[in-house]
User: Fold this.
Amino acid sequence: MTLRLFDTHCHLNMDEFADDRPAVLTRARRAGVQGLVVVGFDLASSRAAVALAESFDGVFAAVGVHPHDAPSLTAAALQELKSLARSPRVVAWGEIGLDYYRDRSPRDEQRRAFQLQIAAAQAEGLPVIVHSRDAAEDTWAVLAETVGAGAVGPSPGIMHCFSYDAGWAERFLSLGFYLSFAGNITFPSAGALRNAARAVPGDRLLSETDAPYLAPVPHRGHRNEPAYVEFVVRQLALARGTDVESQAAQVFENAVAVFRLQKSAMARAGDLG
Ligand SMILES: [Zn+2]
Ligand SMILES: [Zn+2]
Assistant:
């Protein structure tokens, strides 16, 4: 039986997919992926994400500036992101956040871009997709102060590629966030991450690839692609002691909920690719 899968976070807008995007989408569809979100990380990749979402059924977009590129978030860039965000195919604002692991931008610049974009997402009525690496404390502080202030609708958003422990999982869950797990949950060393996945209520769990990065076992070390989200869902089922069909069905429903996808949009998503 083919699983019904959703990849909540991939970068088909990157050059790594320039030569074979249609084939990648066909493989995703064959693997059971009925919806995926192409996520922006700067202005150009956000434009590309929207263009892809407008070209392929079952493909949705998120627009935003990654903490690595925080200094590029000028007033003009923010303005263009806001107009891109009004495409009906845009379902979230991201990826935004804090990355103190690579520290490619000054931390005060990262916090500035994060706060500005949370405000923009709230103004546009979109959930945020948060990237947070070695920055749990500051990410929490910014979100508690902004999202916690309650200006967002049913869900403030997603902690993408969740990589913290079960204690942090509880804290982000308490702000209303969904936690999305990526291919690193399949790595043998990821026991703490599997524990965190066990701590998440079933209705707040999501699956993603973050392709082209972080390919799950058995594809580790190669280019990742949305079809491989299946291995993430299988690992989630294993870690949580659920059967894989109902785990897949649940994370799919959760994706539909967090992105507030219309039933009509998902009906068309059966034709992904
Ligand atoms: Zn990220
Ligand atoms: Zn990403």
